[in-house]
Please model this.
Amino acid sequence: MKKLISLTVAVITVLIFTGCGQTVQPPLYNWGDYVKSSSKYAMYGERKDVLEKHTSELAKIINESEAKKQRVAPGIYAEYAQILFETNKKEKAKKYFVLEKETYPESTLFINRVMKKLYGEQK
Amino acid sequence: MKKISHIFVIVLITAFFTGCGVVSQSLVSKGQLYPSLYKKHPKSILVLPAKNTTTSVDATDHFRYTITKPLAEKGYYVFPVHLVDSFFKSENLSNVEQIRKISTQKLKEIFNADAILYVDINAWDTDYSVLTSSVDVGISFSLVDASSGKEIWQNNAYAYTYAGMDGNGGWLGLIVSSIAAAVNTTVDYTELASVSNTAGVGFLASGKYHKKYKKDFNKKFVLTSDTNLKDGKLYVNNYFIHGNKVEGKVPFTVRGRVKGYHSFSVFNYNYFNHNGYRNYYITQNINSKKYLKNRFFRYENNQPYLLSNGKKVFVFAESDGTIPFSKEGKSYYFQVLHIIELNKKDT
Model:
């Protein structure tokens, strides 16, 4: 009973602060530590440790999601591909650019445009 | 102890319902609230770099890089920010102003994005003292249909973080701070931007990759406001005009600061019965045009409205965006232009 009350209190308190009644949904994607890692990469991307940390975070998200047959979150493949390209793994990068297009057809035009810039006319 | 707990529950429940200011309640569906959004149903969103209208220099980036997750979790395809950034750079566009001046049609041509999201940071107030630190953030979101260039959704969000001694939240503050116990004394801007963005886009329609895609049109919720519609006039609470002049204890408001990171959409009127927002108006930069908007009104086709007892009440605005008010005795009111009845009973 006591537990139930504490739970009710907690739930109501959460309701108050989430703005009157939004329910919490299970997440659609695995994000790992993407948010923090991506922000840091944006600001200190030139630092080797930050770059390496972000690269391995992206790889980890991809591996974990694929292992669970879960759709990889929007942009993750593409940003991984971008880093691979920038660190001279250009052929490996291609695979992930293509995966972004296959997973999210909405990205096709833009990814094609980027690939044309990076790889020239060939696909 | 058991009795005390019972009382707590009752108080909390009462507080929950009265805390939302039961002056006027409107039962609204998402579809009614955002008709243009549901008409267009964008699948992909391109987020442009945020515009910082405040004097704080360190705010902007945090918002850009924390918005992908909440948008994607709503079911939208979000263009990869880092890739978008370097694409703009390769086109010699690195300045926020320049990028935000590109027409939505051009952006559609380049990215094939269905919608463009413009984010404005319009409040960033910090207050650091010996025992406490706090940051208040105000953000505006505007989602524009890429083909037509028209705004199809907008929202204002408010967030704050507080660290240090407990605020004047009283017993509620105590309960909440015991729930959110582990709080660092330094401010994590990434976290603050994350919670702001999450609150800001929380009420968007579900997108293509969400199982509620095209199914949440009828999802209803109750929105409350301190408004009263009478004789073609929309009366509002005085704080709507003047803000909360007196620093002090106001229940369920930001002034009862609670440790941690908190955020909400600005449309539950008691939430902004506080001193966190100093300005009544904000200037929003959407699609290279400047709009004067009021924080506390909602907008549809750039016309301001408030909800009042199940009605969308559109009010008169000057061509520059100012919304004039009149005084009648001690009450303030706005001039009503037209009304949309939301919940007509079936006859």
Summary: The two ends of chain B are 51 Å apart (CA to CA). The first helix of chain B runs from residue 2 to 19. Chain B is about 25% helix and 35% strand. The longest strand of chain B covers residues 115-128.
